[in-house]
Amino acid sequence: MEVIIQRDYEQMSKTAAQIVAEVLNTKPNAVLGMATGSTPLGLYQELVRLHKEAQLDFSRVTTFNLDEYVGLPVNHPQSYHYFMHEHFFQHVNIPRHNINIPSGTTSNYPAFCQWYEERIAECGGIDLQILGIGSDGHIAFNEPGSSLSSRTRLKTLSKQTIDDNARFFEHREGVPVYAITMGVGTILDARKLVLVASGKAKAKAIAQAVEGPVTSMVTASAIQLHRDAIVIADKEAAADLTMRDYYEFIYAAKPAAPKS
Ligand code: PGA
After folding, report:
1. CATH of the domain at 242
2. Where in the sequence is the domain holding 63, given as residue range(s)?
3. 154 close to 139: Cβ distance less than 8 angstroms
4. If you measure from the C-alpha of residue 210 to the centroid of ligand 1, how many angstroms do you get, rounded to a whole number?
5. Does residue 103 form part of some domain?
6. Does residue 258 form part of some domain?
7. Per-residue confidence of the chain (260 residues) as pLDDT tens digits?
8. Which of 88, 106, 227, 253 could be disulfide-bonded to 44 (CB atoms 3.0-4.6 Å)?
9. Which amino acids are annotated catalytic?
10. Domains contained in the chain, number
11. Ligand 1 in reach of 98 Cβ (< 6 A)
12. Which of 9, 38, 44, when mutated, tests ligand 1's pocket best, judged by the most ligand atoms within 8 Å of its CB?
């Protein structure tokens, strides 16, 4: 695993965007796995800037989002469909039919989940999966206790996640209790993982994910099993890592490392 510690949120976002851009430059028809939440917002802003100012082309890109709340229609301001359209898709040139987001309103969840897995496989698998991390250590909505070989399925949100996400809703009661989410096994099948984390509320989860034991109680720790996983954390999110100096030494010594 590569751990990149950046001085702040802006540098974290730019470094992550640079990695996405490198994948697209090498493979213009790449399949990208997208994440929602407040953390990847800066990464999306930077990708939009690269699209507008540096002709980063998304016209052959296919995307798969990690998750969606169950019960929210696509035009609900807190749905992940809405989020992705607002913050990313409407600003770049990904063909609409290449965008895949789990349905939060299907009448048959098991069938939809199976279809989603098959669709990923048909598209050749995910080349690069963007990830955030929950304060409970989740990736996507794989809450503590999720099988590390789980596939796309319905999941009940943890109390911690509902509390964390209540800030986006008018009332805590408005936060959906269920989500449809790619599984940990689905995520581990991606060819490259980039996990972004910012702020001190994520420090414990990052330390557990990167340096703790691999455990279903911290599903982000499963990325330790991946051959090409990059964690990009700002200083606050990296604060509890015991090997911080070592990661910084490696990154500083890397010849082609993006610096800004
Ligand atoms: P956040 O969510 O970026 O809004 O903190 C991250 C996550 O839960 O994966």
Report:
1. 3.40.50.1360
2. 2-253
3. no
4. 17
5. yes
6. no
7. 999 999 999 999 999 999 999 999 999 999 999 999 999 999 999 999 999 999 999 999 999 999 999 999 999 999 999 999 999 999 999 999 999 999 999 999 999 999 999 999 999 999 999 999 999 999 999 999 999 999 999 999 999 999 999 999 999 999 999 999 999 999 999 999 999 999 999 999 999 999 999 999 999 999 999 999 999 999 999 999 999 999 999 999 987 655 55
8. 88
9. 67, 136, 138, 143
10. 1
11. no
12. 38
Q: Is residue 135 situated within a structural domain?
A: yes
Residue type, 142: N
Give a yes or no: residue 260 inside a domain: no
- Distance CA(156)–CA(207), nearest Å, equals 25
Residue type for position 185: G
